[in-house]
Design a protein that fits this description.
Distance between the termini: 28 Å
Largest sheet: 6 strands, mixed
Strand content: 35-45%
Order of helices and strands: EEEHEHEE
Helix content: 10-25%
Strand order of the largest sheet: 1-2-3-4-6-5
Number of strands: 6
């Protein structure tokens, strides 16, 4: 499972009441690190995604990871696209066949 996978980093975000509000998962695959974020439905729209993503990236960088972070976002998920762009990621390409935009943070 992912939680026992040494190539997977899972970070849990909590609010000021120590309630879990979401998670960031980073899977290290060869020369890529795939980042994924999930916010609890009750916590969406409150700005937690940007904070959680930025803090997770900062933590990941503190581990002296060398390879870039990659995020795949559905073209229909405008909110996630904005979160990744505002967190320093840039669009690498759009895969129209699979309806995914790939972002990169170097």
């Amino acid at each position: 499972r992912k939680i026992k996978d040494s190539n997977c980093l899972i970070l849990i975000g909590i609010d000021s009441n120590n309630i879990p509000i979401g998670q960031v998962r980073i899977d290290s695959l060869d020369e890529l690190n795939i980042i994924d974020i999930s916010i609890d439905s009750d916590a969406r729209g409150l700005g937690f995604a940007s904070i959680l993503l930025k803090e997770s990236v900062k933590f990941w960088k503190s581990l002296t990871r060398e390879n870039p972070l990659i995020a795949d976002v559905f073209t229909s998920n405008n909110t996630s696209q904005k979160v990744f762009l505002s967190s320093g990621f840039r669009m690498l390409y759009e895969d129209k066949a699979n309806e995914i935009i790939r972002y990169i943070l170097i």
